[in-house]
Amino acid sequence: MPPIDSSPASATSPFYKTLHATTLSFIHSLFESQSSTRIDAPLIHAVHTPSYNHSWGHNYFVSTHPGLQGTHDLDSFLAHMQDMLTKLESWRTDIKNVVVDEVKRMVVVRASYWMKVKGAETVENDLVWWLWMDESGERVERSIEFVDAEAARRIEEVMMGTKL
Description:
Blueprint: H1 14-31, H2 41-46, E1 48-57, H3 59-63, E2 72-73, H4 74-85, E3 88-101, E4 106-117, E5 122-133, E6 140-146, H5 149-160
Parallel strand pairs: 1-6
Antiparallel strand pairs: 1-2, 3-4, 4-5, 5-6
Protein name: SnoaL-like domain-containing protein
InterPro entries: NTF2-like_dom_sf (IPR032710)
């Protein structure tokens, strides 16, 4: 299947384009590295508000994974990301679709993260992000990330060295 063009339509408003660009910066700040040795901290801080918070869904899945429960501020979210980085050789991001709601300053993104666990297989984690932006549309205020539960289970198994 050919890659999907995630660029905004040419007839969109300037605010739509701002929301879209902020979304791409958000996704790429966390997941674009071919090397899992670091995340783009300056870009991460540039596209998040100081009061940013993150949570995960789906409710049942989250209820069975204590580390994903509750709301996380930027520092605890980045700590979660850094913990994952230590177990990965690389990941690749394929943005599948971006839907922008200008009135609500909300964007929905579907993306695949091809996560290669050190010394093991690559697993596709098909995610959906909901992002809410500040008044300017240039920074993310909050997000909720819906993960592929089976992919997350497999990634966890491989990282823990079980069921290889």
